[in-house]
Amino acid sequence: MKFVYKEYVLRKAEPRDAAELMRITNEDEIMKYYGESGAYLKNEEEALQEIHWYNNQLSKHAGMWVIAQQSTGEYIGDIGFNDFVKEHNKAEVGYKLKKEYWGKGIISSFINQIVDYGFHELHYHRIEAVVDVHNFASKQVLIKNKFVLEGVLRESEFEYGHYVDLEMYSILQKDFEKIQ
After folding, report:
1. Domain residues for 61?
2. How far is CA 28 from CA 24, 32, 34, 39, in A?
3. How far is the CA of 57 from the CAs of 1, 72, 86, 132, 164, in angstroms?
4. pLDDT tens across 73-132, in order?
5. Nearest CA to 23 among 79, 77, 95, 84?
6. Closest by alpha carbon to 164, among 131, 140, 116?
């Protein structure tokens, strides 16, 4: 399946993406809501391990794709599924994007495409997203893509010296079919 939006494409991660992946994970404004545990990549070796994980998971009903400029192949972000639970046919969607590409509809379009892929090709029953209550942009993207707010996970994670509330969003395969 090919994922395309305007001049952007999703592709498998490659070793050449390591430097940009490391750079994006070290930008405070981009990573503000990812928490401090493991989100920041310290060196190229860690970035290469992350790329290996992205691709390894793609063969296991999850994984991340690189969001790239179609003309150059340049890494500008990533999007995909993690935390796949086979017994329940569910996974969590996650994404990040370089700041200069925010507000262009890139994440929203690719969420719609990979959710379709998750339901029709991977046979998910449910796709979840867990979002910091203060991450308004991410919440808007999910709502635009018909994810439903299920509730607040109060003080669910300890980040940067204090507990943070997270909101749980989801979309079910049967609900996705109704809106297509």
Report:
1. 4-179
2. 9, 5, 10, 11
3. 17, 25, 13, 24, 28
4. 999 999 999 989 999 999 999 999 999 999 999 999 999 999 999 999 999 999 999 999
5. 77
6. 131
Query: What is the total count of domains within the chain?
Result: 1
Residue 5 parent element (H or E): strand 4-5
Q: What's the chain's length in residues?
A: 180
* The Cα angle at residue 13 between residues 62 and 94, in degrees rounded to 5: 45
Q: What is the pLDDT of residues 59-74, one digit of tens each?
A: 788 889 999 999 999 9
Q: Are 100 and 87 contacting, i.e. CB atoms less than 8 angstroms apart?
A: no
Reported pTM: 0.91
Helix axes 106-120, 136-144, angle to 10 degrees: 50
**Matching residue, tokens 């599924």:** 81
Which pair of structure tokens corresponds to residue 128?
Answer: 């979840």
Q: What letter represents residue 57's amino acid?
A: Q
**How far apart (Å, rounded) are the C-alpha atoms in residues 171 and 125?**
9
Q: Which CATH number characterizes residue 70's domain?
A: 3.40.630.30
Alpha helices in 26-150 (DSSP H): 28-31, 44-58, 106-120, 136-144
